[in-house]
Amino acid sequence: MSFGQGGPSWGPGADGTPDWAALAEQSAARSRRRKWLLIGGGAVATAAVAAIVATAVVHAGPDGKPAASGSSLPAPVDLPPAPSDPGPTFSSVAPAPLPDPMDFLTDEKKDTAPITVTGFFPGKKLTMGKDVYLKGTTDRTTSCASVTQGALGAILTSNGCDQVIRATYRKDGVAVTVGIAVFGTGAEAKKALDEASGGVASLSGAGVDTFCRAGAVCRRTSNAYGRYAYFSVSGFVGGERDVTTADKAVYGAGDDLTNFTFRQIRSRGEIQASEAARAPAA
Q1: Which residues contact 134 (CB under 8 A, 6 or more apart)?
Q2: pLDDT per residue over 161-179, tens digit each?
Q3: What does pTM read for this prediction?
């Protein structure tokens, strides 16, 4: 029995039983043909899409317009070179050392800043830590011996003292007078200090009664820095009470005032040294 071309085939026995092996082989062959057709068609489609994309890339100019026939991909854009960074530069010449403040303080030819009372003792009061001292009377004289007690006047004069500046400060019944003797050189001031005897006379007025006169025992100090010798006398105001080592307030006040005086003299030298360093070279 036959169904014509492409129909099912029956086995050789002609007994009406289908040849199942032949039918399976025919079905498998048809499946293989469909599979290869699908794979081949997909490959062709993929190749076509790739060709279209490649054509678009090749024929697109850098501005998005079609490029001329036969053109290639645009060359990479040449960017301007990055600016060179020179980096920090350092001079090979070492800066000149700052002048020594003592070069100014030991010689009147270099120590040319004005000498004034307010330059050494400014303002109306002095604060040292928690202690506040009110400034009393000040004075200045070129007669060095006239503002001293004991042998100090003759010593200052013999060593070339040019002038003495005095200022008095008070706090809680204690008063201190500081006197700065000015010399021409540091050597003169040092010699006067080594020979010092007696002391600077106390300076009363402006709220400070006479103190440390008429034989009262007071605390006296003497020091020198550069061409400046400075002396102090500390005691009680309003009487002739003697000072003893137990009177810490008197010692503390005297130390505060002499430390302040030293700093003022040193600052004078530092300021002049700094100004000399900033001055243009001659």
Answers
A1: 124, 125, 169, 170, 171, 207
A2: 999 999 999 999 999 999 9
A3: 0.66
